[in-house]
Specification:
The complex is a heterodimer.
Chain A lengths: L5 H5 L4 H6 L16 H5 L10 H10 L3 H4 L11 H5 L6 H14 L5 H13 L15 H8 L15 H11 L2 H4 L5 H7 L1
Chain B lengths: L21 E6 L11 H9 L4 E7 L5 H12 L5 E6 L2 H14 L7 E5 L1 H5 L6 H21 L6 E4 L3 E5 L3 H12 L3 E6 L13 E2 L4 E2 H14 L3 E5 L1 E9 L2 E8 L14 H5 L3 E3 L8 E3 L1 E2 L11 E2 L28 E7 L1 E4 L3 E3 L16 E3 H8 L20 E8 L16 H15 L4 E6 L9 H10 L4 E4 L4 E4 L5 E7 L4 E7 L1 E6 L1 E3 L3 H8 L26 E3 L9 H21 L1 E4 L4 E3 L9 H5 L5 E4 L4 E4 L9 H5 L5 E3 L4 H11 L5
Parallel strand pairs in B: 1-2, 1-3, 3-4, 6-7, 6-18, 7-10, 18-29, 20-27, 21-22, 21-27, 22-23
Antiparallel strand pairs in B: 5-30, 8-9, 11-12, 12-17, 13-14, 15-16, 19-28, 24-25, 25-26, 31-34, 32-33
The chains are: A mainly alpha, B alpha/beta.
Chain lengths: 190, 670
């Protein structure tokens, strides 16, 4: 709140809100009447600093701080606010849109950047902890007990497919957006 | 009344086209039209249309000066037909027809092109498109006016009697006003007593008048007025006819007690062994299967709740009911009325909050709704004016009111509108509770307090200043029940920007009002319209707020939209005045848009007779042709389209006129 200075109030812009309502389903965001149902319903907000209603307010007023603050990353996307909003605003979708915008403008948090790097390296956001001897992996035994292959038929069994994922990331410019380094591709070229 | 004689009617020819001199007047309507259209281009276009002798523009043709300009052109003999391109004809068609009539032209030589609603408003940002569409509308109306025929309005007698549907505070006020002017009033109420929702209220804001104390004298006035015929426990089954001459079928539900013999002694109640839920107390208290809803009920006779009655015969024994009024096998009966006007004052239902699972209504004992709290507070209610928690029968130490429950909620099943009474009734109830228990804690969770009426803001201020009611800005998120049946409330104090949790003993959901569940049936039966929120639609939201779009039918009270008691009473008096004007005049003019049978073309096949939804067509046996009663005909056109011999023509919408419109708008391509 201390960041809202008279200066910001006078420099009214619609930059962020215009960007959000390019998605027609989110246009209703402008009708937010600040009732507080979202904040009151938020399980994350009882433990962290996230104030959903304030995020919506800042988004409507296009205050830049909504993208740089940590708040938008504290939402667990449980969709309770989305269900209860009396104005039918898809609150969670607005927050996800804000995260996309924040990322595009270079406000990604280091932890999230690391997750995307893991995705680029392994093809999984949360890869399996594979030791050299796959016989030792507990999950591997569990899979076998259900009649499944030891290693799932993903990039874990097909490491060469990681290159295709990286290619997709390059084609969509995702690599530049989150500043990825493609070790295996670069090594392959060498 | 115009009675057409089948022998003399023949298909008259349209007047010769070369004699038609049309004056085309294009209205700027301020900037509504002038700000979007290129007016000079419109004038040039207008002059090119066939038979248009002169084409002009002006700021507001509905103004005195505008009308005078048209009048002068008619008087100077320059024109004999008029087209005004302006707003919707709904408002100003009568205005311009009067100009024609008072200057010696038949008022039906007029057509209005709606280039505001249909062109400039909908194409506010597409000026070229608006221009193109406006030209088409004008082209069509100029084509139509070339073919129009002179018509005479029909006069209809208005019977000096009114049917009022619903005897709440609205219906009762309308009834008294009309009866005092000498008109006969039939006041229909589906409950066994008149009084409506107001009878269930304890006190009224902001004056804290006892609701019964101001209502029951009115009820007595109604019952004593010789011009008012109360029909309690009755419902309207069917409405036929038209303004001035409605024919109404009424179902009188069986009381199972002869209402003329019952002396209201009440001995039967003591003898009745059945105890069931009291619906007047919203099922919070008990009553017997033989009952009157509340002590001051009007009419004061008893009724048997036949769904709960076990027919034990106790009450029927001569030692209990001396007049022998009990009739267990009584059946519903029907009667028919003829009235000149109708007032609809059917009231409202309270929104059911059961599906708002996060508030737990219906699941947690100590979560109640607004009307239940009203009965809880009432000295005639189940707790005799000592409000308690339903779980333990003890007065709560802390009470929270939740505003906007079911209203201001765009989700499916709830209502986007503001119910207009909940803020004030919550403040009133909180204040009443603080008066009884000054040590209690009262919270009102709100988004905006709408204290809009006379004395309301002062009442709101006093509630916190003098009574210490705490206002919490934020819509409550959820309620949980603690093991001891107290309630944990979670929400945000939006002023603090803090999620909060409060424990209270009792929660009152300030539920809003909604249209009656059977409002659609009433609307269909009467031929009136509803707005998207389900309430009955007024003819004009500003200028005809009490008229329906069906002539002779008026509306009052919450049936038209949420409102408080002062507004309801004002509307009731207004609706009574609307009905009285028609009945005092004794006759009304009706547009002659009825269909006419040309007897020389009619083959007498009778196919139209059964198709007519208004039973307006009869068969003339002597001439073997169909005959349409011009008063009963609504001009729907069904018979015109169905006639295999093309023998029926509808005034003002003839085949010839419609085909000319189509041909011209297609640029003569047809």
């Amino acid at each position: 709140m201390e960041k809202i200075t008279p200066n910001i109030i006078f420099n009214i812009s619609n930059d962020i809100s215009d960007e959000i309502i390019k998605d027609e389903a989110l246009r209703i965001m402008k009708a937010c009447f600040q009732c507080g149902t979202c904040t009151g319903s938020c399980p994350s907000g009882r433990r962290t600093a996230i104030r959903t209603r304030q995020i919506m307010r800042k988004a409507v007023l296009s205050l830049d701080e909504v993208l740089s603050d940590e708040d938008i990353w504290l939402c667990s996307t449980c969709y309770t606010c989305y269900e209860r909003c009396p104005r039918n605003i898809p609150v969670t979708d607005v927050i996800i849109k804000l995260r996309n915008l924040a990322t595009q403008r270079g406000f990604i948090k280091p932890a999230h950047q690391k997750v995307t790097q893991v995705l680029a390296d392994t093809g999984h956001g949360v890869p399996l902890g594979i030791t050299k001897n796959s016989e030792e992996n507990q999950w591997s035994k569990a899979r076998e007990s259900y009649g499944l292959s030891k290693i799932p038929p993903t990039t874990h069994s097909h490491p060469e497919a990681v290159l295709e994922i990286q290619k997709l990331m390059q084609l969509t410019n995702f690599d530049k957006l989150v500043k990825l380094e493609f070790k295996s591709i670069n090594e392959g070229k060498k | 009344m115009t009675e057409s004689n089948p022998k003399t009617i023949s298909k008259s020819k349209s007047p010769k086209e070369e004699d038609v001199r049309i004056g085309l007047y294009i209205c700027n309507c301020g900037i509504n039209i002038g700000g979007v259209l290129e007016m000079d281009d419109m004038i040039e276009f207008g002059k090119t249309l066939p038979n248009v002798t002169l084409c002009k523009k002006y700021k507001f043709y509905c103004s005195d000066n505008g009308q005078a300009e048209i009048a002068k052109d008619i008087k100077d003999g320059l024109i004999n037909r008029v087209v005004v391109a302006a707003c919707s004809p709904r408002m100003h068609e009568p205005t311009f027809r009067r100009v024609l009539k008072s200057n010696g032209l038949n008022p039906f030589y007029f057509a209005q092109a709606n280039i505001r609603e249909h062109a400039t408003w909908v194409n506010m940002y597409d000026h070229e498109g608006a221009q193109r569409i406006a030209k088409d509308h004008i082209r069509m109306q100029v084509a139509k006016v070339r073919k129009l025929k002179a018509l005479e309005t029909i006069k209809v007698k208005v019977k000096p009697s009114t049917l009022i549907i619903g005897a709440g505070i609205a219906g009762m006020n309308s009834a008294l006003d009309l009866a005092d002017q000498g008109f006969k009033v039939y006041l229909i109420e589906r409950e066994p007593t008149i009084g409506g929702h107001m009878a269930q209220l304890d006190k009224t804001f902001p004056t804290m008048d006892c609701s019964s104390c101001i209502l029951t004298p009115k009820m007595v006035d109604v019952s004593r007025n010789p011009n008012i015929h109360i029909m309690a426990y009755s419902e309207v089954e069917k409405v036929d006819g038209y303004i001035g001459n409605f024919e109404v079928k009424i179902k009188h539900k069986a009381h199972y007690i002869d209402q003329l013999k019952c002396t209201a002694c009440g001995a039967c109640v003591d003898s009745c062994p059945v105890i069931c839920a009291n619906d007047f107390d919203l099922n919070m208290g008990p009553r017997k299967a033989i009952y009157i809803p509340f002590p001051q009920a009007v009419p004061g006779q008893y009724t048997i709740d036949i769904d709960h009655c076990i027919k034990c015969g106790n009450c029927a024994s001569p030692s209990i009911c001396e007049p022998g009024a009990i009739i267990y096998d009584e059946e519903d009966h029907y009667s028919t009325l003829k009235v000149g006007t109708i007032i609809v004052s059917t009231g409202f239902d309270q929104i059911d909050p059961t599906n708002l699972k996060n508030y737990g209504y219906g699941k947690y004992e100590n979560v109640i709704n607004g009307l239940e709290m009203e009965r809880n507070l009432s000295s005639t209610g189940p707790n005799l004016g000592k409000p308690v928690c339903p779980s333990n029968g003890k007065p709560p130490h802390s009470v929270a009111w939740l505003q906007c429950v079911g209203s201001r909620d765009n989700r499916e099943g709830y209502h986007p509108y503001c119910s207009r009474v909940c803020c004030m009734y919550a403040i009133k109830q909180a204040r009443q509770y603080k008066e009884k228990h000054p040590e209690a804690e009262c919270y009102i969770f709100y988004m905006d307090i709408r204290a809009f009426g006379k004395g309301y803001e002062e009442f709101y201020e006093s509630s916190s200043h003098d009574f210490g009611i705490k206002y919490m800005r934020g819509r409550l998120a959820e309620i949980y029940e603690n093991p001891d049946k107290t309630l944990l409330l979670r929400g945000e104090d939006t002023f603090l920007s803090q999620p909060i949790a409060i424990n209270v003993d009792l929660v009152v959901l300030s539920t809003g009002v909604e249209a009656r569940t059977d409002a659609t049936n009433v609307a269909t039966m009467l031929g009136i319209q509803q707005t998207s929120d389900g309430f009955f639609m007024e003819a004009h939201p500003k200028l005809r707020p009490l008229d329906s779009l069906t002539a002779g039918i008026f509306m009052a009270g919450v049936a038209q939209g949420p409102k408080d008691i002062p507004d309801t009473v004002s509307q009731a008096k207004g609706a009574a005045s609307g009905a009285a004007i028609l009945m005092a005049k004794g006759e009304v003019e009706v547009d002659p848009y009825y269909a006419v049978v040309y007897p020389n073309l009619c083959s007498g096949c009778r196919s139209c007779i059964n198709l007519c939804p208004y039973s307006a067509i009869t068969f003339d046996e002597s001439h073997k042709v169909a005959y349409i009663n011009p008063i009963m005909c609504h001009g729907c056109g069904t018979c015109v389209a169905s006639c295999p011999s093309n023998a029926i023509e509808q005034n003002h919408f003839s085949g010839d006129q419609l085909m000319t419109i189509i041909t011209d708008v297609l640029g003569g391509l047809y």
